[in-house]
Write a structure and sequence with these properties.
This protein has 559 residues and is of the alpha+beta class. The chain contains ten helices and 28 strands.
């Protein structure tokens, strides 16, 4: 018998038997791989769950963003502000502005002070303003502050400008240069301008301290005031009446943006009105409010629709969506629906509106919301603050000396009694039994106190202001509203917390399952490699044996 050569383990040729062993082994290995296929299907299902939970989290984050943009009175009660002449006067209004009309006369604008050096200079970057051989000084006063700028030997006009502007002691003066266009020997003129408007923001040159150039070249006698620093002057609804004999017949302002005359309204002066009145109108911007509510509802519906789609079961085709039967999606949807259906925390029988359905927002099939804009508009016209409290955080106190200044996600809407002691200086006496909703408060500084942890008033922050002569105490009630936007934002914040939120826990569990499946699949792949190698070795040996038998048969036939 001749020498036998073994076939490579990776390739069973079938030359002796005529059998396609490679295809046979592939078919056998498909059966052997069934456990791995099942594991990979399960892994794909888990990966699909992880991906779809990412979609839900993205939708929740978008809803949280909308809710947080509509969770305060300022954000909800948008006000419209119009003017009959925006070239003279434009106007903006916050939620605190009272709807009304006002007539404004603009007598003059607030301006900044500008000085121009009249003597001029020949060039910017060649001729030195200081060729004394040592340091010299340029000195000015702005808004009551004296500033001495050191000018080194050889400094040019451009250097002087840079030294003034970059001086750390500069309190608001901008140096620049202007070309007078004369084509003369000294066309460049140094300009000094105050950054701030107002009659007190003037610039003066300090001759005694200025020895730059020949000692007098930059003195005050060589400067001209090209614009005087002055206050804006306006009259609002005829006030002040010049016939009253007041020292100043105008309301003055250092700036052209005036926000301290009409509460919640900022006047932006553009020009004087030439003695004529400009009418401004402040009103509730109902369309803007309805638009914001629509945005919130649309985002809410997007979350609900996403959950419905991902948890749907098709009975006709007997197919289920990736998250069908998932308990967390069901609990999230239930919690969202509960927020919609319940009375808003903090409201009671004394409130005009307690539930969203009273202002035209109702639940439809599948848990989505629908808005009757006409009904919402009517409610806003009737009592805009009552509507706002269905969405925002707001609070009121029965005491003029105690106000609510803050809250957090743990604060629950409701009515809470407080009892507060203060000393002769009007400072909270932390040694006394100061309580909110029957629990001791935490005192911060002289005037702030906060509700106790693990109570409905946790995070509720109140302030004592000017209580009068003491020592004494104040008792009263604060009523806090936590509207839908607040509830949604707080709920989603808990769900998506990066450390202990339900979505984080859920994704960790899914990832752990994927990791475990990866380990099992990897172990099976090693095992399958060994099984396949064993099959190839056996069939290779069989092929060799068949080849030997054929050789032996051929030998016997030849005898």
């Amino acid at each position: 018998m001749g020498e036998t050569n073994l076939m490579p383990i990776g390739n069973v040729s079938g030359l002796s038997s005529g059998i396609d062993w490679n295809s046979t082994i592939d078919l056998i290995m498909q059966l052997e791989r069934r456990p791995v296929d099942i594991l990979e299907i399960r892994r794909s299902e888990y990966q699909s769950r992880l991906t779809n939970w990412g979609v839900i989290e993205s939708k929740l984050s978008a809803l949280q963003s909308k809710a947080e943009s509509l969770d305060s009175l300022d954000e909800f009660l948008a006000k419209s502000a119009t003017t009959t002449d925006s070239d003279v006067l434009s106007v903006t209004a916050s939620s605190g502005a009272i709807p009304a009309s006002h007539d404004i006369i603009v007598n003059q604008l607030a301006t900044n002070h500008t000085h121009a050096h009249t003597a001029g200079w020949s060039d910017l970057n060649s001729t030195a303003v200081n060729n004394s051989g040592g340091d010299q000084t340029f000195s000015y006063t702005y808004d009551g502050t004296v500033v001495d700028v050191t000018i080194p030997d050889g400094a040019t006009m451009q250097d002087l400008i840079n030294l003034i502007n970059r001086d750390p002691n500069n309190t608001g003066v901008v140096a620049s240069v202007i070309d007078d266009g004369s084509g003369g020997a000294t066309p460049y003129h140094l300009m000094l301008s105050g950054e701030d408007t107002g009659s007190n923001k003037d610039i003066s040159i300090n001759d005694a301290n200025t020895d730059l150039n020949d000692g007098t070249y930059f003195d005050s006698g060589n400067w001209a005031i090209t614009q005087t620093a002055q206050n804006a002057e306006i009259r609002v609804d005829g006030f002040p009446d010049p016939g009253w004999g007041w020292p100043n017949p105008w309301i003055e302002s250092e700036t052209n943006d005036i926000d301290d005359i009409i509460p919640g309204v900022t006047l932006h002066l553009q020009d004087d009105s030439g003695g004529s009145s400009i009418r401004i109108e402040i009103g509730l911007d109902t369309s803007a409010i309805i638009g914001k509510v629509n945005d919130l509802v649309d985002s809410y519906n997007d979350v609900i629709e996403t959950i419905n789609t991902l948890t749907r079961y098709d009975a006709e085709n007997e197919t289920s969506a990736p998250l069908f039967g998932d308990s967390l999606t069901r609990s999230i949807k239930d919690e969202l629906l509960m927020m919609i259906a319940q009375n808003i925390p903090g409201t009671d029988d004394n409130d005009v509106y307690r539930i969203l359905g009273q202002v035209g927002i109702s639940l439809t099939s599948g848990g989505k919301l629908a808005i009757d804009e006409d009904e919402l508009e009517e409610a806003l016209a009737d009592d805009p603050t009552a509507v706002a409290r269905l969405f925002v955080f707001d609070a009121e106190s029965t005491s003029n000396f105690v106000t609510v200044t803050g809250h957090d996600e743990n604060s629950v809407g409701g009515s809470y009694n407080f009892n507060l002691y203060y000393d002769a200086n009007g400072v909270i006496d932390s040694g006394q039994n100061n309580t909110l909703d029957g629990s001791p408060v935490t005192v911060h500084g002289d005037s702030l106190f906060e509700g106790a942890d693990d109570t409905d008033v946790e995070g509720l922050l109140l302030m004592l202001t000017d209580p009068g002569n003491g020592p004494s105490s104040i008792s009263g009630t604060v009523k806090a509203y936590t509207g839908l936007s607040v509830l949604l934002a707080n709920c989603i914040d808990r769900l998506t917390d990066s450390y202990e939120g339900s979505l984080k826990t859920n994704s960790d569990q899914i990832n752990d399952s994927i990791d475990l499946l990866d380990e099992r699949i990897e172990a099976w792949e090693v095992r399958l490699d060994s099984i396949e190698e064993n099959y190839r070795r056996k069939y290779t040996q069989m092929e060799v044996l068949i080849g030997q038998l054929r050789t032996t048969g051929s030998y016997l036939s030849s005898i």
